[in-house]
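Hallway conversation turned thread

IA: we were arguing at lunch whether anyone had actually written out F-box protein At2g35280-like end to end. Turns out nobody had. So, for the record, here is the sequence (161 residues) and right after it the structure tokens. Reply here if something looks off.
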Amino acid sequence: MAQKQKISSLESLPQDLLGDIISKVAKYGHRDIRNCLQVSHELAIACQDGRVSKNLNLMPLAINPLATLNKYQPLMEKCLQAGNPEAHYIQGIKEYFYNDNIEIGLPHLQASAEGERRMEEGKKYLDKLEWAKSTTRSDRCWTNIKESLEGIPILQETVLL
């Protein structure tokens, strides 16, 4: 008769709750998720939750987006399907700059900019500018940003059809 393995209190939680917990761990990086995958069957199942892929911290991969061309492609596809903003950023950079595919690259970059974490960061900055009291300071900052961006030259190639 096979002996049943004892599971921890954490592993005995419902899968939905485990998925929520693991999705918060995912914000710290893929190594932590890899460790969860190796700990137990229950945690490995929870790692398959879409919230984990959406929240997975991919910033180390964003430093070198071309590294995701081969080695991390399955992970990238899973994160893109889950709407991970960093995955969209990496894919946008690859498509726009490496593959010279503006039509595919820009929507990915837009999805990244609209990502949940970016929104939270933006709200924090706006709160620092006390925009809820008055938009004067934030409007002035936005004007300064736009003026500084005007000085960045962008070369656009003419495409002959």
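OS: looked through it. The chain has a mean pLDDT of 80.
IA: good, adding that to the notes. The chain has three domains: 10-57, 61-114, 117-146.
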